[in-house]
Design a protein that fits this description.
The chain has five helices and seven strands. It has a five-stranded mixed β-sheet with strand order 5-4-3-6-7, with helices on one face. A two-stranded antiparallel ribbon has the order 1-2. Helix 2 packs parallel to helix 5.
């Protein structure tokens, strides 16, 4: 069986990491620097994760992929432009330069965010609903069918390493407490 059960994944095996010092980063995407401060973890409720990935110098030997994600309390209604970060993560996309695509970067960001959600759930034993958002249509569509992929679909899959790990995280997060 070429399904996802053959893989074992953790942040170290994929070469990914989460941000350790949340207060040490700043949003520089606007003309004004906006300091982000961690709010801590709420005891219950929904945690909303959003992730993004990109590739610089795609389709050449200098290609480098990276991703980032941020989580916030779902009860905070200020919108994504004005919120207090609960958790954040960032990393580089594993693989050789020819493997670095936008979809791989987006999927790697989603995987890292899911691993953070699962780590959080295992750490304190409190299950919260986790909602994951991203802006790559291909990744969203593949996620919706991932757990039902046939052996042939797995054989044809590009970025199989990332997708196998995503499938394992989705299986671990089952129980209706996450949506993607």
């Amino acid at each position: 069986d070429a399904g996802p059960r053959e893989a074992t994944c953790d942040a170290g095996s994929m070469g990914m990491r989460g941000a350790a010092d949340i207060g040490a980063w700043t949003d520089c995407g606007t003309p004004v620097r906006i300091p982000m401060r961690p709010a801590g973890i709420t005891p219950c409720g929904v945690i909303e994760f959003t992730s993004d990935g990109s590739v610089e110098d795609a389709a050449c030997e200098a290609a480098k992929g990276a991703y980032g994600w941020v989580a916030r309390d779902g009860a905070e209604n200020a919108g994504w432009g004005d919120f207090t970060a609960m958790l954040a993560g960032a990393g580089t996309v594993p693989g050789d330069w020819w493997e670095h695509t936008s979809s791989r970067a987006e999927a790697a960001g989603l995987l890292d965010a899911m691993q953070a959600a699962l780590t959080l759930a295992r750490k304190d034993g409190v299950l919260r609903k986790a909602v994951f958002s991203l802006d790559n249509e291909a990744v969203v569509k593949q996620c919706s069918t991932l757990l039902g992929w046939s052996a042939l679909r797995w054989l044809k899959c590009t970025d199989r390493d990332v997708w196998r790990c995503l499938a394992l995280e989705m299986q671990a997060l089952r129980g209706g407490w996450y949506s993607c």
